Amino acid sequence: MKCLYPALCVILILLSNMTVSHAGLTLKVAEPKIYGQKAILKLELQNTFTNTIDSVRAAVFLLDDGGKIVGQETRWIVGGTKDRPPLSPNAKTTFHFVVKSEKPFAKTKVTVTRIVLEGGRLANIYSDVEMVSVTK
Prior knowledge:
By secondary structure, the protein is mainly β.
């Protein structure tokens, strides 16, 4: 197929290849608070999916100056247990993640490892999560 207007064809191809960024789960991560040998991270979650989120599993890593892991925990932060209900569309919730570490750490890394939507369908943890760091 030959294009009569090459510049217009290039623009249309570029526009058709652009992906719209959309997150189904927005996760705000606050600076950790340290109490003895425990770090507490406040996570604020918002469901921007049109479906209910049945459960979300996340891992928190505490890293030293060299990037070595000095503490880690994995938890269900939405659902997964009877005391944590599912997250309805447009709803928000807060989860306080407690991680033990006997060594000092320089930074934290939060990773969402699983999102289960209503009906058992899995969401894409790479494209459906928006991480926001909150610093004070």
